[in-house]
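idk why but the lab printer keeps eating my pages so im just putting this in chat instead. protein + magnesium ion:
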Amino acid sequence: MDGNGRWAESRGKARSEGHLAGTEAVIRTVENAFRAGIQCVTLYAFSSENWNRPAEEIQALMGLMLRFLAEQKNLFIKNKIRLRTIGDLSPFPEAIREAVEAVKAETSAFSEHTVAVALNYGARDEVLRAAQLYATDVRSGKLSGDTAPAWEQFSKYLWTDGMPDPDLIVRTSGEIRLSNFLLLQAAYAELYFTDVLWPDFDKAELDKALAFYASRERRFGKTSAQIQKDEH
Ligand code: IPE
Ligand code: MG
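predcted complex ->
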């Protein structure tokens, strides 16, 4: 979700106004995605590098997160959406951690729809933590460690354990990079980049992204002929 700041600046508004408009895009996109049959939506809300922003902007983002959790809690419950997070929550203010954990706990039994919010997330942090947890299990004898783990085994140590790999990654605002987002899980993801700024991302824009996705032939290393044979 990129471009909140530029959206605000181009209107002579404070960057925080862009983030506020961005939360509206979050709500409509999640609703539109579920309506389109998508089961899991992961939102890159706050990266491990976003702590480098001015204190005032971080403060505004924290305020918005709290407001979002309070205002949208019932939406999650009413629509049976499970809230998950990926990333290390420990540096966040207690009020945010508590609010997040409360919604997570209240929605943990839902299985049809998942919204995963990446908070203080970075793919490199994720893999380092996974390696450390894996090593702990080897040391305690839970795993032998004699051979390299299969990916299915190692990926259980990632924050995304239990979530499907992303089929489609959308980045707004014209930047063509992944910025430390789900680097390993994105191995076979289709990547969609649009110049549209995140607060302007609406149903028509989601539909364009989904049409792009539908036009891709996903081969997972196979040949086109094999895929066409499998489909028929
Ligand atoms: C993305 O918008 C939102 C967050 C990182 C929370 P930006 O704040 O990065 O917007 P630009 O890139 O400055 O336009
Ligand atoms: Mg940005």
